[in-house]
Amino acid sequence: MCPALLPPVQKPHSTVLKDPPGPPPDLRPAPKPRRVVRWITTNPEHLAETDAAELKEIRTACPELDVAARHVRDFATMMRDHRSDLLPAWLDRVAADDLPALHSLVNGLRRDIDAVTAAFSTSWSSGQVEGHVTRVKLLKRMGFGRANLDLLRRRVLHSP
Questions:
Q1: CA 46 to chain CA centroid, nearest Å
Q2: Cα–Cα distance, 110 to 115 (Å, whole number)
Q3: Quick one: 36 exposed, middle or buried, by C-beta within 10 A (0-12, 13-18, 19+)?
Q4: Residue 62 and residue 5 in contact, taking contact as beta carbons nearer than 8 Å
Q5: N or C, which terminus of the chain has less Cβ within 10 Å?
Q6: What's the pLDDT score for residue 14?
Q7: pLDDT truncated to tens, each residue of the chain (160 aa)?
């Protein structure tokens, strides 16, 4: 975790009071990691002003998160714009940074670089197929223990 996001460490106080104690500073609770991830993965143009300001504050406080967010947004831009020609340079930039979680992603992408490049450069999507697979799995789970393959086949073929 980023040291800037950790709570401050309390140092032992001397017995001599130099200044009268004032009201404690207002500490805002840190946003949940899932929310920060959503802010990073959302197109900056679609972020609310308050969310964008809070994300900017967090990115300023944590340089590692700032670098990771930059890489994630660059990757999203490449995917959205179908720019597979920018992928090798992006992979090299990420590998040069000290971000082990993204290194794992880069290694996985490099193992199957031809498929990744094809996915970036084509406008085809497997979304509809994945939707049907999810529906079939749901039907299968609903009939677990009391349905056989014939009933599953009928439900898959005749359901909307």
A1: 16
A2: 10
A3: buried
A4: yes
A5: C
A6: 55
A7: 565 566 555 555 555 556 666 676 667 788 899 999 999 999 989 999 999 999 999 999 999 999 999 999 999 999 889 999 999 999 999 999 989 889 999 999 999 999 999 888 888 878 888 998 998 888 888 887 777 888 888 888 876 6
For residue 104, the one-letter residue type is: S
* Six-digit token string for 56: 């900017």
Q: What tokens appear for 43 in the block?
A: 């197109």
Q: Which residue has the tokens 């805002």?
A: 28
Place of tokens 């789970």: 141
